[in-house]
Amino acid sequence: MNKMFKMFLASLLVVGLTGCGSSDSDKETLKVFNWGEYIDEDVLDAFEEEYDCNIIYETFDTNESMYVKLQGGNSYDVMIPSEYMIEKLIEEDLIQEIDMSLMTNLDGLNQDVLYQDFDPENVYWVPYFCGNVGIVYDTTIVDQEDVEEGWSLLMNEKYAGNIYMYNSVRDSFIPALKSLGYSMNSTDETEIAEAAQWLIDQREIMDPVYVGDEVIDSMIRGEKAIAVLYSGDAATVLAENEDMAFYLPEEEGTNYWFDGMVLSKDCENVELATAFMNYMISDEVALLNTLEVGYYSTNVYAASVASQDEFVGNDAYSFVIGENDECFAYQSQEIIELYSSYWEKILTQ
Fold this sequence. Notes:
39% helix, 17% strand, globular, single chain, 11 strands, eleven-stranded mixed β-sheet, alpha/beta, 13 helices
């Protein structure tokens, strides 16, 4: 789908919005806290126009940094964390129930995404994006039979010095725990220690580079042959570099995840915040967002159009729940600190 068509879609959002709005000082304000590079910013402008309001938009890079900001006294109306953080926010009474009767676009969502274990009655969150964690690899360098080894590929010495791993505790423990046959939500210290040793061994043998969002551009340029990537980032890489492919370790299993919009406990304008969440899951807005960021939309129309156009033939633009796949679960502070202590050891080896 070309840039001109994306611009056309964006223009549709503001057609008919004429007349004089309020002065900035008179306008209602909505504070939105989202992941970096996780929205088409034209959507924000269009919402401000339609609802005659101002949006204060801030971004975070991890669920944990979002939580720290919240605990530090920062105030937001709408936040967009991942499932395990939503569970934590529910547990700690930091978000409030959403009036789903006002969510008129809810029927347009993939109904299989609703009613997850972290919110079985689906009253606290509105689905935004979903996806998996898998392996992106350069088909001109990596043998397909090696890829089919699953997470063990990350220990294959043929590719030493040619691997990216996420600089993230939970994300990097996924391949370690799964390759050992354990749950990626393990709270067993013996299993966690064994997984940590797997990562220490990997660092010594494979010399991986630990990265953040910069991995997307690096893989597009083909700077490494292998990377552990979230499916949306992988879809972007595959769209830009035809030598790259995406693989989900089915036998061992991997992570499937959800990001969703929640309403903070101290939201100052519930009506406007609810309208924003409903707006974000409307067909055309959801399409603009998924085309912009590459992550699989929970809106059925948006996912269908994107998969048949911009991401046609792109294996990473998908959402799968395999038999051995898991969703991250909320962890106690004690377990979080245990993982973190091992992670420090891994990074200092």
